[in-house]
Amino acid sequence: MSVFIDIAAWVCLVAGVSFCIIGAVGLLRMPDFWTRAHAAGMTDTMGAGLILLGLMLEAGLTLVTVKLFMVLVFLYLTGPTAGHALFRAAHAYGIPFGEAALENSKLAGRSDAAE
Amino acid sequence: MSRTLTTAFLLFSVWLLWSGHTEPLLLAFGVISVACVVLITRRMDRISGVEQSDWPRASFFLYLPWLVWQILKSNIDVARIILSRGLPISPRLVQVTSSQRTATGKVIHANSITLTPGTLSLDVRDDQILVHALTVASAEEVAAGEIDRRVTRIERGH
């Protein structure tokens, strides 16, 4: 039984690390701030989530797992909140969305989006 | 009063789970710190007048598995985009209408959008959320409003 848990834990850890690496590759490949933020979002969600899940499987039913679970909960609460603060600040500061993005959008009645 | 007791009970449970200590001295320290926090939050409630919410609701925990599934799917989508040769992105802005009435509902809606890679919520104004989407597919998915419907459903409490 413990072999299966070990295997599941390692699958989670390897998959989580892979998502982190792909997120980092995306960060380098994406053209501007906004698209890079999408790539960075992967490391926050799946990367960290799967690594923590793998660690929880290794720790078993202990207080360590409770703490790891709470780390996961707080990460999922604070991640998008901090992200939102960052994107809002970037939007207010006027980091451009790029020509293509604006052409694609066709936003009606929202003057600030086109600035 | 029951609110204060619930807060104290939750805080002390969390304290026990995180510390794992059962020595009388440390338990007493735990009780004292819980009492301090409860007193401070009571004072803060009186000053700030924030909307009193009864979150999290039971239906919220039914929403989480669906959200995790969405996060998984969109992560795989974005990973595939990053690893493909031509980097097939088509970034765009979308407006999403949020039908939630409470601030907490809107926060859950906007944060759910940000949590799924491929869509970021930039700004919330009245009932409009400005979303940056990475591809046509992610823009269409967020515009379809599935997240909005589900969050509104849990906000209404069923």
Please write out the topology:
The complex is a heterodimer of chains A (115) and B (158).
Chain A: H1 2-29, H2 33-59, H3 63-93, H4 99-105
Chain B: H1 2-19, H2 24-48, H3 58-83, E1 92-97, H4 103-115, E2 119-125, E3 128-133, H5 136-144, H6 146-156
Antiparallel strand pairs in B: 1-3, 2-3
How would you characterize this protein structure?
Helices cover 81% and strands 0% of the residues of chain A. Chain A is built from 4 helices and no strands. The mean pLDDT of chain A is 86. Chain B has 2 domains: 2-48; 58-156, no CATH class. Chain B contains 6 helices and 3 strands. The two termini of chain B are 27 Å apart. At the A-B interface, helix 1, helix 2, helix 3 and helix 4 of A face helix 3, strand 1, helix 4, strand 2 and strand 3 of B.
What would you say about this model in short?
The complex is a heterodimer of chains A (115) and B (158). Chain A is an all-alpha fold.
Structural class of chain B: alpha+beta
Mean pLDDT, all residues of chain A: 86
> What is the H/E string of chain A?
HHHH
How much of the sequence lies in strands of chain A comes to under 5%
**Radius of gyration of chain A over all CA atoms, rounded:** 19 Å
Give the strand content of chain B.
Answer: 5-15%
What percent of the residues of chain A sit in helical stretches (DSSP H or I)?
A: over 70%
Number of strands of chain A: 0
Report the total helices of chain A: 4
Parts with pLDDT < 50 across at least 5 consecutive residues of chain B: none
Helix content of chain B: 55-70%
Cα(first) to Cα(last) distance of chain A is 59 Å
How many domains is the backbone of chain B divided into? 2
- Largest interface, chains and sizes: A-B, 44 and 38 residues
Q: Mind summarizing the main beta sheet of chain B?
A: 3 strands, antiparallel
